[in-house]
Write a structure and sequence with these properties.
The protein is α/β, with parallel strands linked by helices and 291 residues long. The chain has 13 helices and 7 strands.
Length: 291
């Protein structure tokens, strides 16, 4: 992964500049209908979930705008000193800049930060050209910054809880995996198959293998299953030497119970305490002592 790739899905405060965003309570108000605004007085929306815009597509839209003008107005809100902030329509805004327009049509609305987030994100989530990571980050932003539950979010964007959960799980993956999804190197299905793999280095290795070998989602699921089995087998084969403190405790418990006691642990620190017995009577005796 290139060194300049920033972690994705790791703290929305960083994405939003650590702004304290209030919960919206007042309804939005339309200040004016379709009106022309000088393009230099409009600033981008900091809540924009889209991190990449296809350059060729922007150039095509810019050429169309040069020929026919900007047909669909953008939506903005006043932010003082004659300036406006985009709520929706950033792709059109960027293409209009490329086309050299000095003014563009816009709907002007008065909204607070919280509703601006909702309007920008919900509008953008419905677009087909958002990648899965951008959608996942938008869902998380709406839930954390606007205090939505998954049920409320589902109602807002017309998705089921299962769908939203599947997207949110992508944000638990390591940065290399998220970047691979963002750059369309692997699909959301590939990424979901990698979620059970907790080790980030192993995740990164698997992504390289998926891309290099052009594995299908089903092949990826099989690869992940074999990888996890290998990890478990490796842990079980590693011999762990108990510390003096643990061995001393094992001896003391065995003496108190007058029974054999085995303490076992693996390389991760997980393990169990085994007390074997040979009859129902001995089991009852041990249970009485343990209680």
């Amino acid at each position: 992964m290139p060194k300049n790739d920033k972690p994705l899905g790791r703290g929305l405060g960083a994405m939003l500049g650590n702004m304290d965003i209030p919960v919206h309570k007042e309804p939005t108000q339309l200040v004016s209908g379709n009106t022309n605004i000088h393009i230099s007085s409009i600033e981008a929306n900091p809540y924009q979930p889209r991190t990449k815009f296809d350059e060729e597509s922007l150039q095509e839209l810019a050429q169309s705008i040069k020929t026919y003008g900007l047909i669909q107005p953008v939506t903005v809100r006043p932010v003082g000193n004659g300036k406006y902030q985009l709520i929706s329509g950033e792709r059109r805004f960027r293409a209009a800049q490329i086309a050299g327009l000095t003014e563009i049509p816009a709907f002007v609305r008065t909204v607070d930060d919280a509703l601006s987030i909702q309007m920008a994100l919900v509008e953008n989530i419905q677009r087909e050209d958002l990648n899965a990571i951008e959608i996942a980050m938008s869902y998380q932003m709406l839930m954390e910054e606007c205090h939505f539950t998954q049920e409320q979010l589902g109602e807002k964007v017309g998705k089921t809880n299962t769908t939203i959960s599947n997207y949110l799980r992508l944000l638990k993956l390591s940065t290399p995996v998220q970047v691979a999804v963002r750059d369309n190197q692997i699909s959301m299905g590939h990424a979901r198959a990698l979620v059970p793999v907790e080790d980030e280095e192993i995740q990164a290795k698997l992504v390289k293998q998926i891309v290099n070998e052009q594995l299908s989602v089903r092949q990826t699921e099989t690869l992940v299953k074999k990888t996890l089995e290998g990890i478990r087998n490796k842990k079980s084969k590693v011999k762990i030497t108990l510390s003096d403190e643990v061995r001393s405790a094992q001896t003391a418990i065995a003496k108190k119970l007058n029974a054999k006691v085995n303490i076992k642990k693996d390389i991760s620190g997980k393990g169990n305490i085994q007390i074997p017995f040979t009859s129902d009577e001995e089991l009852k005796r041990l249970l009485n002592l343990l209680q």
